[in-house]
């Protein structure tokens, strides 16, 4: 005697569709949360790092507004580096756009990739002892721009050259 077939199809066939829909909704919610919260977190890390770098200078460094243009681009509007002893400012820039390395931002590091300066006015002075009025700024910028040693993809290893 043959087995009797069930009249209704088993609902298992449609469970994968429901699971896929739930998975897509969960992925969408997680993606939206990361998309909207990441710029806030990155912005805080970058602004804290900028304040640390600016505080290292003995000069007054000021700007009117700092704007996050993209996830990895900041624009300082009316950026100024003060002169020595209340003299004229060493540098006045209409806007200073700084591009950051996006991969380093995800690890909490701030590495400058490029800088675009718009309408700079620079006041340079050389003193009798051979020093200039921008030696301290030069050292600060070199320190801020120095990042990890570039990796040679052909060398393998960790990029330390050893």
Question: What does the secondary structure layout of this molecule look like, with pairings?
Answer:
Elements: H1 12-55, E1 61-62, E2 65-70, E3 73-81, E4 91-100, H2 102-105, E5 112-122, H3 135-145
**H/E element sequence:** HEEEEHEH
Tally of distinct domains: 1
Given the structure, what is the number of helices?
3
Strand element count: 5
Uncertain segments: none
Which structural class best describes the helix and strand composition? Answer: alpha+beta
Mean residue pLDDT = 76
**Helical residue percent band:** 25-40%
In what range is the share of β-strand residues?
15-25%
Q: Biggest sheet, open or closed, and with what strands and sense?
A: 5 strands, antiparallel
Q: What is the global morphology?
A: rod-shaped
What's the Cα radius of gyration?
27 Å
- Roughly how many Å apart are the termini? 78 Å
How do you describe this structure in short?
The protein contains 3 helices and 5 strands. It has 162 residues and is an alpha+beta fold. The N and C termini lie far apart (78 Å).
